[in-house]
Amino acid sequence: MFENPDCEERCALIRGAKNIAVVGLSPNPARPSYEVAAAMQQLGYNIIPVTPAVQQVLGATAYARLGDVDQSIDLVNVFRASKFIDAIVDECIALKLPALWIQEGIVNEAAAQRARDAGITVVMDRCIYRDYRQECT
User: Fold this and answer.
1) What is the CATH number for 39?
2) Residue 20 region, left (φ>0) first, then alpha (ψ -120 to 50), else beta?
3) Which of 75, 92, 97, 104 is the most exposed place for a label (fewest CB within 10 A)?
4) How many domains in the chain?
5) Segment holding 56, helix H or strand E
């Protein structure tokens, strides 16, 4: 059964990230993906929107896929339904990305374990901003 890294490891992951690619980042300010990404951006993180539907979100250029991003990615933060996690994990493995954070309410244990087996640090079913606020400050 999949287990998340402990609090200390999660905080180290958050603190060590500079460039966070947010897969499924909505341009709608009422959506959780927008709220979380905007909060992380205000904390100084470089948010890289990965969403094919728009050109920009939060003042940053949006990319259709992780493979299209033209800057380094320290952490992939996912706001997509569990059925899409397998393809995202495939892309993370192919791109040799170091870390994957699957937001609260999204669970795909097999995909998370596959990513971990490929050497990717994985957090699943947790909110990155809530963890930052409650455990890492």
Assistant:
1) 3.40.50.720
2) beta
3) 104
4) 1
5) strand 56-57
Collect all residues with Cβ–Cβ distance below 8 Å to 134 and sequence separation of at least 6.
none
pLDDT for res 137? 83
Taking alpha carbons only, the member of 44, 21, 43, 45 closest to residue 33 is 21
What's residue 1's pLDDT? Answer: 86
Domain assignment present for residue 123? The answer is yes
Helices (H), 29-127: 32-42, 85-94, 109-117
- Alpha-carbon distance of 86 to 90, in angstroms, equals 6
pLDDT of residue 29: 97
Q: Which domain holds residue 18?
A: 7-135
Report, as ranges of residue numbers, the positions in the chain whose pLDDT lies below 70: none
Looking up tokens 């690619």 gives 21
What's the pLDDT score for residue 119? 97
Q: How is 16-48 classified by DSSP, letter by letter? A: H-SEEEEET--S-TTSHHHHHHHHHHHTT-EEE
Report the alpha-carbon distance of residue 99 to residue 82 in Å, rounded.
17
In a domain, 46, yes or no: yes
